[in-house]
Specification:
The chain is α/β, with parallel strands linked by helices. It has one domain: 3-Layer(aba) Sandwich (Rossmann fold), CATH 3.40.50. The protein has seven helices and nine strands; from the N terminus they run H-E-H-E-H-E-H-H-E-H-E-E-E-H-E-E. It has a six-stranded mixed beta sheet with strand order 3-2-4-5-9-8, sandwiched between helices. It has a three-stranded antiparallel beta sheet with strand order 1-7-6, sandwiched between helices. Helix 5 crosses helix 6. The radius of gyration is 17 Å and the shape is globular.
């Protein structure tokens, strides 16, 4: 029922009206810079944005929540940005291990209840490492469902596959090839991924491309 209502709200062109349940992120007033943030050259971001190059406005989903820098940069390119803070939703009410399928679908409807083929790109960031195993594959299927054919997803994974605690970040787009990372907290991952595990996770997508980096994060571009 919720999915049908959202489809009506989006209409045939897949754009949400101003009073939709999932509103586009809006420009925020200026905020002071976070002194803990540091810049990181991002080949993944560079390719993600290159794949979105278009004279037509595109729809992008940011699963890191509303971030002023991302809103300003992406809307400045003429795109429409939707924001969902996935990890906050997970912390508040993710289905427990052994949950029924209806509970999982209900959670996904509330968190990612967008019509099919809504988005040209999704900024997943590092969220998948902290999603409970019972929710992981259904979540990836939902991301596939709400992404348009040929859409791109940008994800990040920690390189240390044995770490008990890893830092989480707020990811802010500084320019077309630079991310500012502001540390949020140390957190225990639900699972850590090697390259083969990432490939299996996205095995129903067209392609998975890895970008090597000198720090503790691996960037991955996934094509729907």
């Amino acid at each position: 029922m919720l999915k049908d209502l959202l489809k009506k709200a989006f209409g045939s062109r897949g754009s949400a009206p101003a009073d939709s349940a999932h509103r586009p992120a809006e420009r925020q007033p200026g905020l002071p810079e976070d002194p803990s943030a540091y810049a990181r050259h991002s080949h993944g971001l560079e390719q993600f944005l290159a794949n979105l190059a278009s004279e037509e406005p595109l729809q992008i989903l940011d699963l890191g929540g509303v971030t002023q820098a991302n809103v300003v940069y992406l809307t400045g390119l003429g795109h429409k940005l939707y924001s969902e803070e996935l990890l906050r939703s997970v912390d508040r009410g993710a289905p427990a291990e052994g949950a029924a399928q209806r509970e999982i679908e209900s959670f996904l409807d509330q968190t990612l209840g967008y019509p099919e083929a809504s988005f040209d790109g999704v900024l997943v960031w590092d969220a998948l490492e902290f999603v409970p195993p019972v929710l992981l594959k259904p979540l990836v299927r939902r991301l596939q469902y709400v992404s348009k054919p040929g859409a791109y997803l940008l994800t990040l994974f920690h390189a240390d596959e044995r770490a008990e605690l890893v830092p989480t970040y707020s990811y802010r787009i500084q320019d077309g090839q630079t991310l500012m990372l502001a540390r949020r907290q140390m957190r225990r991952p639900s699972q850590l991924f090697n390259n083969r595990a990432v490939e299996r996770l996205f095995q129903d997508f067209q392609s998975v491309k890895f970008f090597l980096a000198r720090d503790h994060l691996r960037e991955v571009i996934v094509r729907r």
